[in-house]
Amino acid sequence: METYIIIILCIASFFAGFIDAIAGGGGLIQTPFALILLPLEPVSSLMGSLKIPGFTGTSVASVQYLKKVDMNWKLLFIMAVFSCIAAFGGSYLLTIVSNDFMKPLLFGILVLLAIYTFVKKDFGKHTPKEIPFQKSAILGIIISTLVGFYDGFIGPGTGSFLMVAFITVLGFDFLHASANAKLVNLASNMGSLTLFIAKGKIIWLMALPMAVCNGLGGWIGAKLAIKKGNDFIRIFFLVVVIGTLIRLSYDIFFKN
């Protein structure tokens, strides 16, 4: 692998980690770069390799959030377990069938999500709601299972989907939704990584240096998000959702 390719991928990975730490969707940056720069590599190997920097960046960002944001550890643990198992299943399915049939549906959902977030100015800026633990656990299991499976099967925008689900269903504000999304996403990454490593799908030469850069971006992004708060995260969230729409538009309407 040429040195310049690794350097470009590392730069992309840094920005991916930065954005992902704030609002999710970092895969929208590093995934296209990997596909363009390494067209001869199997897609499964590239997707598996990109899980390594994704895992590292999310881990670093999670640590920063944990220092500043109060967490419901019992609820988080339950969601993380189901997210990990579901992502493993999604990644296994990806090795068997194509995920292209899901993209038009995902596109429609994201359009509605972008419109709703833009129109509803107070979305994610409220005081977190108090929901009984049993109800939160059931809803959290449903969310983490569905989004975890999505992460393993499709991937881009996972953090954003977790955030909007935590806000609308569990009553979190943007800051708490982002913190919980990082940790649940970390679990789903672990589930996918377990499968990809077992199948030998990791290109370590690109994955390891990208992991370092992604981790640095995640560290900076998380600190900035915590410092700036809900308004700042909301803006980034909208940018990421729109970026996801552009990416899916290309895949659905223009890609041969």
Question: Could you explain how this protein is built, in words?
Answer:
Keywords: Cell membrane, Membrane, Transmembrane, Transmembrane helix, Transport. By secondary structure, the chain is mostly helical. Helix content is 80%, strand content 0%. It contains ten helices and no strands. The chain has helices at residues 3-23, 27-37, 43-68, 73-94, 103-119, 133-153, 158-168, 174-198, 204-228, 230-254. It starts with a helix and ends with a helix. The model has no long low-confidence stretch (mean pLDDT 83).
Fill in the keyword field for this structure.
single chain; 256 residues; mainly alpha; 10 helices
Topology of helices and strands:
Blueprint: H1 3-23, H2 27-37, H3 43-68, H4 73-94, H5 103-119, H6 133-153, H7 158-168, H8 174-198, H9 204-228, H10 230-254
Helix pairs in contact: 1-2, 1-3, 1-9, 2-3, 3-8, 3-9, 4-6, 4-8, 5-10, 6-7, 6-8, 7-8
Pfam families: TauE
Protein name: Probable membrane transporter protein
Membrane topology: Multi-pass membrane protein
Report low-confidence residues grouped into runs of 5 or more. none
The radius of gyration over CA amounts to 17 Å
How many individual helices?
A: 10
Category by helix and strand content:
mainly alpha
Mean pLDDT: 83
| Terminal Cα span | 26 Å
Helical content stands at: over 70%
Main beta-sheet annotation: none
Beta-strand portion reads under 5%
Order of helices and strands: HHHHHHHHHH
